[in-house]
Amino acid sequence: MHPMVKPALRRGWRDMSTVQFGVAPAHALVLGPMDTATSSFLTLLDGTRGLPLLREEARRMGLPDGHVDRLLGELSRAGLLDDSTGGGAAADSLREREEVMERLRADVASLSLLSPEPGGAIAKMAARRAMRVRVRGAGRVGTVVASVLAAAGVGRVDVLDGGHVRPWDVAPGGLPAESVGERRDTTARRIVRRSAPGRPVRQPRQPAEPEGTAGLSLVLITPRDGLDAYAPAPAAAEELLASGTPHLYAGVIEGTGVVGPLVLPGATACAECLFRQRTDRDPTWPRMLAQWRSGHARQVPACDVALSTSVAGLAAGHALAFLDGEPSACAGARWQAAVPGFEWRSSPIWAHPSCSCGAAVSVRGDRPTAGSEPHATMAG
Asked: Least packed by Cβ within 10 Å: which of 67, 142, 262, 321?
């Protein structure tokens, strides 16, 4: 082990014996009381020294035997300690790819704030590199989502869509202006490759790729027609439900952005649950939906570029949290925001007792996942 205080957190002294790690309240911690020798020793926790050398340096500084181990234990319990050599064999392989690591260093630093155990951040990043995600839909939302996931270290991001790029599909971080007229899926996949920080080790090809669901960690459904995100057709997700593949909806309908729900088959509400709920509240909903689906398609659907970018960022963030094993605020819920306020609000999507997905019988509230010694307290 080569201990280091997590560099993602800025450090400042509140007084001569109390140090605060972190600025924003979400992750800030206060550590103290601390004597002068211990505060000087903290500067040595930069990941370049192993435990034997650190103990030797502590003796030279006059710290008592056992003090280093007690200090490291306290830092570890507070979630402030990292290990520059930790994370296992997959993390070691990732470190060897220096150019890739340089691209991902900021993301690993952010992950360290959510990984209390030393070496946990790079272990999560190495796990991302082995994952495969599919994005259905390569418009203003889907292409940006796909490029963000690739840039964040997801090892393989497939993009499925048809047709050709239209001028109104162009968006920052998504389809570029020079791609107008090209095949939409081909262009989106090229953007994904350019966004990715190096290519991961090639995985064995599954027989059903790319259309099948084998090996998929998550599918993001980001249709260019925002109605299919706001009121998704249950039939379009039957294969995902049957195979137990988690999937997340995101899109823009008129002037409203939608992210969610994240469907965990058999555990949280699905598209049919959503349809049945809305029909229970409004018996005319099926009739209205049928008219909207069969009506004359508008040539250029409304899709504010700032709103679509916001939707893509939020969807990618929730997707990454799920892939990293964190509880998802989109599981059994939907987030919506409308122009011009951009105020995101969440509403629950309950599993419907009449739906065949089986989520209604799962346990309600379940959310699947992946001197004197100083002590730490939360900073306000």
From this structure: 321
